Amino acid sequence: MLPESRGVVTVSKDQRDDEIEIIDDIIATKGKYRKIVQAAIAQWVKDYQSGKIQINTVNDLRTLVQLDTELQKGLLLSNKMKTNRSRKRGK
User: Fold this and answer.
1) What's the superkingdom here (predicted)?
2) Position 89 pLDDT exceeds 70
3) SS3 of residue 7 by DSSP
4) Phi-psi sector, 13: left (phi>0), alpha (psi -120 to 50), beta
5) Which pLDDT belongs to residue 36?
6) What does the alpha-carbon distance between residue 30 and residue 71 come to, in Å, rounded to a whole number?
7) Which residue in 12, 25, 33, 54 is a FRET match for 19, CA 20 to 30 A apart?
């Protein structure tokens, strides 16, 4: 980082590029995790419909749905951060 000027921290282009690359990696990883969770939810539903899973294991589905929701929120936030960084980089 460059010296502060009037309370504003200036970040070099290389540092911004590094931050954007890290954000991209985080977004990709969360996307992969979300696909895994969605596949697990689909399998749970199939197993439930076929009678392999009894109603007393609904907490498993609840946990998967909550995890999927949290990952989705994280992806939305990460994408928003990426968009904001890209806009700043374009200036």
Assistant:
1) Bacteria
2) no
3) coil
4) alpha
5) 92
6) 6
7) 33
